């Protein structure tokens, strides 16, 4: 089993991540003696759904100070009231594991504020894959553990997309119009690495604009996608600029748009940019490497953009992702435009391969693996 870089807190915590990201496997290795309540088991789920009081009975039998894992807790969020009570009464420590923040938003997170920390589990990063890491394989199939460990990665990805519709969406009754949501998914996948255009998605999917807004929220709350807001010099998000949209894994993005063959040139740019975005996000959550992440697109300058601006304290780091194999000076256009930004400490271009370089005006050109190694070393 590959070693994950997520460190477990010493107090109760939520562990959230998309399905197949390895949460349950990690928990069983980190807490081998914990009492496990697995709500993914239909027998356990039905038993506690019909008689929630049995959950309290289980907890009473556990010695004080022990760890309890509640897996897929979003399926029965009302159990969090008992979690709260037994944290106080018996000093039990809980890991509340889930693949959706949707129901937890209303029930448990506010209830347990200050008593349970939040941690995230992401797809494998290069540091975890080690010698197994292959950029082309990750761009094609992604690095979700459930897919990476499979001997039939494409089939597993296809099944993953189908299972998401069946178990995450249909079983949890998150949408009323399942065919509409199924039409929406491949259209939303085409916006990987782009500004969200709700009107265009609604037209292509044949659903109402307000419905698309709700569908996008579902993708975020089930942890498959995330939005990247725009940045302005006074450290505010631009209200008039649309956020950019990313899927958490290139394999999932391809599966949702039903791309099953080898990578084609037209998709490499978005997939590579998304990999960089997800890698940054993982190290923010695992190591606290920076505080916030944005993209930069100054008003009145069409086509001028920097993919990522990281905020660390008062310092800024600007990063551009380029999927080409041969460096050209044009890659630095946005990074040169952002140079006057106050407190900008470093500018980086990340590309798939090639030797590391530095331009005369101080822009670092880093191959993806070296960039990942710098993140792992905390040397960004």
Overview of the molecule:
The chain is of the alpha/beta class and 380 residues long. It has 2 domains: 13-120, 3-Layer(aba) Sandwich (Rossmann fold), CATH 3.40.50.300; 125-380, no CATH class. Helices cover 41% and strands 18% of the residues. The chain contains 17 helices and 14 strands. The strands form 3 sheets. It has a 6-stranded mixed sheet with strand order 9-10-11-12-14-13. Helix 4 links the parallel strand 3 (67-71) and strand 4 (93-98). Helix 3 (53-60) packs parallel to helix 4 (79-90), helix 12 (198-205) crosses helix 13 (209-221) and helix 15 packs parallel to helix 17. The longest helix is centred in the last third of the chain and has 23 residues, at 265-287. The protein is globular, with a radius of gyration of 22 Å.
Chain-wise SSE layout:
Elements: E1 13-16, H1 23-30, E2 35-38, H2 42-50, H3 53-60, E3 67-71, H4 79-90, E4 93-98, H5 102-106, H6 108-111, E5 117-120, H7 126-129, H8 135-141, H9 145-148, H10 153-170, H11 178-189, E6 194-195, H12 198-205, H13 209-221, E7 225-228, E8 244-247, H14 250-256, H15 265-287, E9 292-296, E10 306-312, E11 315-321, H16 333-337, E12 344-351, E13 357-358, E14 363-367, H17 368-377
Parallel strand pairs: 1-4, 1-5, 2-3, 3-4, 11-12, 12-14
Antiparallel strand pairs: 6-8, 7-8, 9-10, 10-11, 13-14
């Amino acid at each position: 089993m590959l070693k994950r870089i997520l460190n477990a807190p010493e107090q109760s915590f939520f562990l959230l991540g998309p399905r197949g990201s390895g949460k349950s496997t990690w928990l069983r290795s980190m807490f081998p003696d914990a009492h496990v309540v697995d709500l993914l088991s239909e027998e356990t789920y039905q038993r506690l759904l019909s008689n929630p009081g049995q959950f309290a009975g289980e907890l009473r039998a556990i010695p004080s100070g022990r760890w309890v894992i509640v897996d897929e807790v979003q399926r029965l969020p009302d159990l969090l009231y008992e979690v709260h009570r037994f944290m106080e009464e018996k000093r039990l420590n809980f890991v509340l594991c889930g693949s959706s923040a949707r129901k937890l938003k209303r029930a448990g997170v506010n209830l347990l504020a200050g008593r349970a920390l939040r941690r995230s589990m992401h797809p494998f990063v290069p540091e975890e894959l080690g010698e197994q890491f292959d950029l082309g394989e990750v761009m094609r199939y992604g690095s979700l553990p459930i897919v990476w460990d499979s001997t039939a990665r494409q089939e597993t990805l296809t099944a993953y997309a189908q299972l998401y519709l069946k178990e995450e969406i249909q079983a949890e009754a998150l949408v009323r119009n399942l065919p509409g949501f199924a039409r929406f998914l491949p259209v939303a996948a085409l916006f990987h690495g782009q500004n969200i255009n709700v009107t265009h998605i609604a037209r292509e999917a044949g659903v109402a604009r307000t419905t698309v807004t709700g569908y996008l929220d579902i993708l975020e709350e089930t942890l498959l996608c995330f939005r990247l807001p725009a940045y302005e010099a006074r450290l505010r998000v631009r209200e008039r600029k649309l956020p950019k949209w990313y899927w958490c894994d290139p394999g999932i993005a391809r599966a949702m748009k039903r791309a099953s063959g080898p990578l084609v040139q037209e998709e490499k740019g978005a997939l590579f940019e998304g990999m960089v975005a997800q890698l940054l996000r993982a190290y923010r959550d695992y190591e606290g490497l920076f505080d916030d992440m944005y993209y930069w697109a100054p008003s009145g300058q069409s086509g001028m953009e920097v993919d990522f601006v990281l905020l660390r304290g008062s310092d800024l780091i600007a990063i551009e992702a380029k999927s080409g194999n041969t460096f050209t000076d044009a890659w630095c256009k946005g990074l040169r435009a952002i140079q006057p930004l106050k407190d900008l400490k470093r500018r980086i271009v990340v590309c798939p391969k090639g030797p590391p370089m530095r331009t005369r005006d101080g822009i670092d050109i880093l191959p993806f693996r070296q960039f990942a190694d710098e993140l792992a070393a905390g040397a960004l």
